[in-house]
Amino acid sequence: RDMAERGHSLESIKASIEARKPDFDAYI
């Protein structure tokens, strides 16, 4: 179960990064 939740979190983070790529670029 932990792994499944982690995977879901990762996907959510990926979506968030794609949604605000400018922020991500600025962060890097």
Automatic annotation (TrEMBL):
Annotated organism of origin: Nymphaea colorata (pocket water lily)
Domain (Phosphoribulokinase/uridine kinase) ranges: 1-28
Protein name per Swiss-Prot or TrEMBL: Phosphoribulokinase/uridine kinase domain-containing protein
GO molecular function: ATP binding; kinase activity
